[in-house]
Amino acid sequence: MTNNSLKKETNNSPLHKIMSSCYQVTGLVSLSYERPLTVKEQFLLKSHLAICAGCRGFYKNSQTLHKMMKAHKQHQKDTQKP
Ligand SMILES: [Zn+2]
Q1: CA distances from 58 to 30, 37, 62, 72 (A)
Q2: What is the signed CA dihedral for 36, 37, 39, 40, rounded to 10 degrees?
Q3: Is the pTM of this model over 0.85?
Q4: What is residue 80's predicted lDDT score, i.e. its pLDDT?
Q5: Contacts of 51 (CB under 8 A, 6+ apart)
Q6: How far is the CA of 77 from the centre of ligand 1 (A)?
Q7: What is the pLDDT of residue 78?
């Protein structure tokens, strides 16, 4: 009885909901490079980044990586021109 009520409370906590979505958030970060995120997705991403340093670091790194990949692709395009 006590265990059940405690579990229910934890699951209903908004913080727990956000904290448990690290996997979802990293997916959204990748997705954001393929298509624009919806307002709901952006909200989820931003609110999670505000409280999760781990995902914040991942987001920053992925942005840098994405920029480098983009620059590299552009470089390849330029050098491969006939
Ligand atoms: Zn996270």
Answers
A1: 10, 17, 6, 21
A2: 170
A3: no
A4: 79
A5: 15, 18, 19
A6: 35
A7: 87
Q: What is the mean pLDDT of each run of 10 residues along the chain (82 residues)?
A: 50 57 90 94 92 94 92 88 72
Q: Which residues surround ligand 1, an ion (CB under 5 A)?
A: 22, 52, 54-55
Q: How far is CA 51 from CA 12, 19, 47, 58, in A?
A: 18, 8, 7, 13
Amino acid at 31: L
List of residues 6+ apart from 62 with CB closer than 8 A: 29, 30, 33
CA of 65 to the centre of ligand 1 (A): 19
